[in-house]
């Protein structure tokens, strides 16, 4: 009969491997069946998009850093902070018991378990940085589309919806889609804009969002605001390109 430690180890090991295999399959494999599964998950989550509110500040920071900015829900529709924390705990327990079973000390088991648990977080940080770089490249053209549609109708969220229809690159497409769904579902527009700004992570765009919020609150001229933003973001894009060339 197997010891309880080995039974627990095998159960947790199987669960962790299954979760990681599922993530890898959704991200890297282009099989039609997997695309259908991912589409069903996304459709199930589409109408449940709302800002989360955790009881502790550290949980809110972790949610912004590892869930919102990484756009991980595009690959795993049901992923959230509690599930991520459970996965981290599972990795710690599995590695800890594995080292103990192999004859290691408690100290070495704990250190190795903590190091292993940090690997998914490092991967998510890398994904967030990659998303930020992609988004910064698209911001100028995105604001240009917003300015064009705001000239048709003086409504910022109308411009967001039309920009979404024009076909945006990821992760900007997901962020804008979630913003428009939240507003249509009755969430306070300013709260939705704050979440949108946090997910983008661009400092300059956060300042722009503050101006958009003021425009929404006082019903200002959206076209003038977005046209000014357009020229500003194109200048910043040129400066970034010059810095990249010089380095």
Inertia-based shape: elongated
Q: What's the structural domain tally?
A: 2
Average per-residue pLDDT, rounded, comes to 79
Q: Note the run of SSEs as H and E.
A: HHHHHHHHHH
Strand proportion: under 5%
**Would you tell me the structural class of the helices and strands?**
mainly alpha
Number of helices: 10
How many β strands by DSSP?
0
Question: Secondary structure elements and their pairing?
Answer:
Layout: H1 4-28, H2 32-46, H3 57-68, H4 81-101, H5 106-150, H6 156-165, H7 172-184, H8 189-200, H9 203-218, H10 222-246
What does this structure look like?
The chain has 10 helices and no strands. By secondary structure, the chain is mainly α. The chain is elongated and about 70 Å long. It starts with a helix and ends with a helix. The longest helix has 45 residues, at 106-150. The chain has 2 domains: 4-130, no CATH class; 132-246, Up-down Bundle (Receptor-associated Protein). Helix 5 crosses helix 6 and helix 9 packs antiparallel against helix 10.
Keywords:
247 residues, mainly alpha, Receptor-associated Protein
Summarize the structure.
It is built from ten helices and no strands.
